[in-house]
Amino acid sequence: MAVSGAADHAGARGPVHGGAGAEPEHGRPKLPGAVPARDSYRVLHFSDVHLERGFAGVSRWDFLNKRAVGYLNLALHRRARFAEAERKVRTLPEFIAREGVHLGLCTGDYTALGTWPELRYAREITGLVAAATEDFVTVPGNHDVYMPDTLEDSRFDYLFGDLMPNDLPELASADGWPKVRLYGEHLAIVTFNSARPNPSIRFSSGRVPDPQLDALSALFTHERLAGRFLLMGTHYAPRLANGHPDTLRHGLINADELLERCEVVARGALCHGHQHDLYHVREPGLRMDLCGAGSATYRGREGIWVYDIGREEAFATPGSWTGERYELDTARRVKLNAA
């Protein structure tokens, strides 16, 4: 593990509080402004890419906490599982062009330990995917906000802020979430943040803050979203593949309250990551579907979703990694909001 001493490298730590008005030194791809109105939008959903190529320049003080345990796990297990993460993510622009994808959604966990070098590297590689779409939105995962220092210097917002736009900021809570992106007259992507630092080695859980839940409830009935399909994105999974809640140590601790708020949504899907398996769940009493993207880069478990959102119908098609590229499995296509 290459880390620096007490004298931190500015390039590793980055600007304090995001360096207001400054641009990241790697540059940001210019995303197109207005997305053309269509009868149907095709959306790529991927998650948990866990990009990492070392920690050069990171102070050893940044590892005198849970990161030390996380690094040990990375060295012994996780690094091998995600060894080809960059190569896999770099194939997504070709997939986007081949499959006619319009929009991109990533539900977080770009990194392993949420350090500045990891996040910069992830932003650089993800920028290639974002630039291949007409618009791209994201949320952080728990590994991206691994420790409280990630919030103290706003590093995720600094590097990924341009991928977290909001067309209706007046509907957000004080922390800026949820965020809404409107497309044409029948689709809205609604993102909200369920990730938080977990300093204790015993926990990796998430929670949607109460003000966000209240803002979501108000948003669901707002006139600007009336009649639209709501494609919702967050990191944590409200339900496991078997339909049961995750544990309080690892899962979304207020999942039941979130799903209760979502009962008023007539057409939509709740998209997430965190669990490293691709799956689709229908929750009793809920009209919207739950779609977990798993991990796009976990060796042997790679998965993605592609959503086709039309004016009247919507479908979700899973994709997998062939060893060279991602391909869709149309035989497993799922109709969303099916009775």
In words, what does this structure look like?
The chain has a single domain, classed as Purple Acid Phosphatase, chain A, domain 2 (4-Layer Sandwich), CATH 3.60.21. About 7% of the residues have low confidence. Strand 13 and strand 14 form a beta hairpin. It is an alpha/beta fold and 339 residues long. The strands form three sheets. Strands 2, 4, 5, 12, 13, 14 and 15 form a seven-stranded mixed beta sheet that branches.
How do the helices and strands line up, and which of them pair or pack?
Blueprint (H helix, E strand, L loop, with lengths): L2 E2 L5 H4 L26 E7 L11 E2 L6 H16 L3 H6 L1 H8 L3 E4 L9 H17 L2 E4 L10 H4 L2 H6 L18 E5 L3 E5 L18 H11 L8 E5 L21 H7 L6 E5 L5 E5 L6 E5 L9 E8 L3 E8 L4 E3 L5 E2 L4
Parallel strand pairs: 1-3, 2-4, 4-5, 7-8, 8-9, 9-11
Antiparallel strand pairs: 2-12, 6-7, 10-11, 12-13, 13-14, 13-15
What is this entry, summarized?
It is built from 9 helices and 15 strands.
List keywords for this structure.
339 residues; 9 helices; Purple Acid Phosphatase, chain A, domain 2; 23% helix; six-stranded mixed β-sheet
Return Rg in Å.
19 Å
Low-confidence stretches: 4-11, 16-32
Strand content: 15-25%
Profile the largest sheet: 7 strands, mixed
CATH class: Alpha Beta
Indicate the percent of residues in helices.
10-25%
Identify the CATH homologous superfamily.
Metallo-dependent phosphatases
Q: Can you count the beta strands? A: 15
CATH architecture: 4-Layer Sandwich
Q: What's the order of the H and E elements?
A: EHEEHHHEHEHHEEHEHEEEEEEE
Distance between the termini: 53 Å
